[in-house]
Amino acid sequence: MPEKIRVFYNSACPVCKAGISAQKKKTASCKVDWEDVHVDQDKAKQLNAELEFIRERLHVVDKDGNLKVGYEAFITIWENSPNEQWKARVSKLPGLRWCLNKLYNVFARGLYLWNRALKHW
After folding, report:
1. Cβ distance 42 to 51 under 8 Å?
2. What are phi and psi of 66, to 5 degrees?
3. Which residue range(s) make up the domain with 43?
4. Angle separating helix axes 94-117 and 71-79, nearest 10 degrees
5. By C-alpha distance, which of 77, 74, 64, 82 is closest to 103?
6. What is the pTM (predicted TM-score) of this model?
7. What proportion of the chain, given as a percentage, has pLDDT over 70?
C-alpha cells in the first residue's frame, strides 16, 4: 500500500490554487503527493477520470488506494494532517456530512463554470 495520499487538483483555477497553496503549508510534514492536472493533463489517466471532472472537483487517492472525490477528498486530506483531524471528525457527522457534500458540489460546479467562462484553460 502507498504511504502517501495523492491529491489531484487544478492550478489553473485561482481559487483552487490558493486553497492548495495554503493546504500545502499546513501539511508540509505530512505524506502527500500533490498532482497538478493543469501542469500535466496525463495525470487524469491515472484516475481513469475525465480531465474536466478533475478540474471541477478535488480528487484524492487515500493510502489504501481508494478514490475520494469532492468534499470526501477534503476529509481525507484533513485526516492526514495532524492539526486538522478535528475537521475530519466534525465533517463526518451524519447530517452535516450530507449537507457539506451538497454545498461543495454546488460551489464546485459554479466555480468550474466561472473558470470556463474566463477561459482559465
Report:
1. no
2. -85, 135
3. 5-117
4. 110
5. 74
6. 0.92
7. 98
